[in-house]
Amino acid sequence: MTRRLALGLLAAVPVAVVAVFFVLPVGAMLHRGVWPDGSFDPGAVLDVLRRPRTGRVLWFTVWTSTVATACAVLLGLPAAYVLHRLRFPGRALVRTALLVPFVLPTVVVGLAVRELISSSGPLGFLDLDGTPAAILIGLVFFNVAVVIRTVGVAWEGLDRRPAEAAAALGATPLAVFRTVTLPALRPAIVSAASVVFLFCATAFGVVLVLGGVRYSSVETEIYLLTADLLDLPAAAALSLVQMLAVVALLVVVGRLRAVPDPTLRRVAAAPTRPRPHDLPALVVTALTLALVALPVVALVIGSVRREGRWTLDSYRALGGSADGLLQVPVTHALLASLRIAVDATWMSLSLGLVVAFVVTRKVRSRAGRRARTILDGFFMLPLGVSAVTLGFGFLIALDQPPLDLRASPLLVPIAQALVALPLVVRTLVPVLAGIDDRQRQAAASLGAGPLRTLQTVDLAVVWRPLLAAAGFAFAVSLGEFGATSFIVRPAEPTLPVVIYRLLGHPGALNYGTAMAASVVLAAVTAGVILVVERLRVPGVGSW
User: Residues in domain ABC transmembrane type-1 (predicted)?
Assistant: First the structure.
């Protein structure tokens, strides 16, 4: 009873934070949709759904997310095998390069893809600018790393002996993969595909930059309805539909994941040298690397070319305020982004560590296991809820005492911490769950108290993944745009917000400055991810 009470009190802190800064703002937005005039009116949601434009937006979101998810899985599976089961020179560098796009700001991703397919870009001859294909390229570019990382970590932990036994009995490599490896990887593949679909369906900056006013997803439509048209009931109705779809998807995924997650077995096998039958996977990995590298290269080249000549004028403009368009220099926005990201990192790390500790404690009763599952799912909610909804909900719900926080400098890091929280939890939970509880019991039997046991057993294992989670949280916070665009103060804009403002105003200098700022932001993010990869523990750390 004492142990359960202690765990309950420990869980109460992050529950209270998420309730105040996530459930309350999102609930305020949904209240505007179901109670538009102060009285319960569910028909208002149906009225919004009957609009022809709403139907087109929903269909566009569904089919682009489905196609992008399928492409990401088809490209990511071979790359996961090559980067996590084969040994070759430069493997760590390639793995890091393919991981960087996931933590790049979505505005930067959109700008990089636009520069690649523009009329003056390397792929300009394909005439893809302003088409749905451009959005699909951006979504795949951003999300293929999720498949590579999630499935790759699971592949690292698979026991080789069943596959070797099947091969010894005469099965071809394809038959071994189809009958032995693929069934074992199914939970990881389903998890990766579901997360990619969620990220595609809630993509904001990519669709906003590449789709313009012609193509709109649910996420960008919510932004348009709130920021431009002030149609809050319609935006809230779309947010409600989005949340219901996310819950339904998670339920379906939970039923499909009937096989135990292989990432928790931690039977890491040493990688082997490539063999002739690995050639197709190597070719697909090379194509995936090209897909990731080309937009980044195009962005870097575009930042140093202006009107057909090589110049560093765009980088020199970072020290100014872009012809009076901004209240502060771009470099000031970079420093503000770094400072806010540091605050968001320690917030998400503190909450995530507590959550991971609570949901991985051993419980014997069915009620305890059910409560643990519900608690784990509760902290995953920010993963599938629109960041735009969260940001605008802050303005609605946190504007009156005792929660009048709209002018607080902590509001932006709190919002970014909530966005990064699911990533931190998913990084730490497999590590803590993999610790044998008998080690804690042995430490306790030798006289160690709860805090000493935590220090000598849990922290000794989790410190490297904890630093890796901090790196991921920092990178994600550095590039967060959806919620930040609503609540950031004009005098303290973050760099992604500045980049979007520069893109929204004509002029070669503004466009060049936006690209230069994007290169700087991408370089900082890549440096963080490089450090994170060096801290990674083989066989764990799926997200």
Answer: 58-253, 334-532
Q: Which CATH architecture has domain 1-30+304-543?
A: Orthogonal Bundle (1.10)
Residue 215 phi, psi (nearest 5): -120, 135
Which amino acid would we find at residue 136? Answer: L
pLDDT at 3: 64
Of 531, 535, 534, 498, the closest CA to residue 517 belongs to 498
Q: What is the DSSP letter of 224?
A: I
Q: Which pTM value belongs to this model?
A: 0.81
Q: What is the mean pLDDT of residues 63-73?
A: 94
Q: Do domains 1-30+304-543 and 42-285 have the same CATH topology?
A: yes
**Residue with token string 């959806």:** 482
- Whether the CB-CB separation of 60 and 201 falls below 8 Å is answered with no
| Alpha carbon separation from 99 to 17, 200, 252, 300, 391 (Å, rounded) | 30, 17, 27, 18, 27
- Say if residues 480 and 416 touch (Cβ distance below 8 Å): yes
Render pLDDT for 245-269 as a digit per residue (tens, 0 to 9): 777 776 776 666 544 444 444 445 6
Angle 52-85/91-103 helices, nearest 10 degrees? 160
3-state secondary structure of 457: helix
Q: Where are the domains of the chain?
A: 1-30+304-543, 42-285
- What pLDDT does residue 343 have? 93
Q: Retrieve residue 173's tokens.
A: 């490599």
Q: What local confidence, expressed as pLDDT, does residue 256 receive?
A: 61
Top CATH class of 42-285 equals mainly alpha
DSSP assignments along 44-71, one per residue:
HHHHHHTSHHHHHHHHHHHHHHHHHHHH
CB neighbours of residue 165 within 10 Å: 12
**290-338 per-position pLDDT tens digit:** 888 899 999 999 888 877 788 888 888 888 765 556 667 888 888 989 9
At residue 329, what are phi and psi to the nearest 5 degrees? -65, 155
* Amino acid at site 266: R
Mean pLDDT of all residues in 138-148:
90
* CA-based nearest residue to 333, from 345, 324, 321: 321
Residue 516 Cα to chain centre, angstroms: 24
| Distance of alpha carbon 452 from alpha carbon 239, whole angstroms | 46
